[in-house]
Automatic annotation (TrEMBL):
Key words, A-Z: Hydrolase, Metal-binding, Nucleotide metabolism, Zinc
Annotated site, Important for catalytic activity, chain positions: 232
Functional summary from the UniProt entry: Catalyzes the hydrolytic deamination of adenine to hypoxanthine. Plays an important role in the purine salvage pathway and in nitrogen catabolism.
InterPro entries according to UniProt: A_deaminase_dom (IPR001365), ADE (IPR028892), Ado/ade_deaminase (IPR006330), Metal_Hydrolase (IPR032466)
Name the UniProt record assigns to this protein: Adenine deaminase
Amino acid sequence: MMTTNPFPAISAARLPDVLRGMPKAELHMHIEGSLEPELIFQLAQRNGVSIPYASVEDLRRAYAFTDLQSFLDIYYAGASVLLQEQDFYDMAWAYFERAAADQVSRAELFFDPQTHTARGVSMDTVITGLHRACADAEQKLGISAALILCFLRHLSEEDGLATLEAALPYRDQFIGVGLDSSEVGHPPEKFTRLFARCREQGLRIVAHAGEEGPPAYVWGALDLLGAERIDHGVQSVHDAALMTRLAKERVPLTVCPLSNLKLCVFPTLAQHNLGALLDAGLCATVNSDDPAYFGGYVNENYLQTFAALPALHAGHAYTLARNSFEGSFMDEAAKQREIARLDAYFAAFA
Ligand SMILES: [Zn+2]
């Protein structure tokens, strides 16, 4: 338990500025979930696509979700405006500008190719546009960026295997694979062959598990899919043996507090278990998931969560930022450089 603040000079009043300014990595962000209503309308106009909302305000009003599925319905409607390579570039670039403002120095972006290939958009269009934005983020904003291809778990394993084959010619433009979309009813065991094939390709493995689904899905993601990182994982607290394993193996959890609030995984942020995960020694991190839809980018997630959970102090802030670099897929030397920068940042406040 980290009950005493190891940075006594950083009082609760100074904490918001520290959270905003500290260097951090973002490891759980679906690029299609960063589409703001303004950009959806702009791209719809540019591409001559009609969308079932009269105005930006009308679309924003539809963002009152009751669960994961009600969100996914609007999410797929929003993605329908993405057709050209430049659309994918513009979407990713808009995110990187916000990430830079939030002091994100490493971003690992999820993308859902099946959402686009099913509409007749080619894998080449999707990956080339996103990858070009990643290269520019590094060059122009100093953000180290990488792509993680996610399979939609409500679709079949065969569909996932075909998607992987279509993506392999672009193998050097993405570092790993993940598993997202509707969790309950689509357990990890549905995708064991697909993830075995991904591991053969040397891809890094992550998977959404334990967001709405039970701890058994987290076990399955680790043992059947070979997940190195668990996306969400907040339901793990209901399984003591799982918590012990996650802490012992330092399996990173990419926690997304505002997403959990919007999708009613927790009734209020004050009831969120982020503090419990940290105090149990887990490598928990803070991320924005689908920031355009869930009411905030990564700094907003930090700020609102710390405001709602007064037990969290500067020591937790440091640990979360450090975990974000430790849990990233940067090479060891780059991680150490980022952690040294973080240490210097906190030392300056002492
Ligand atoms: Zn997610």
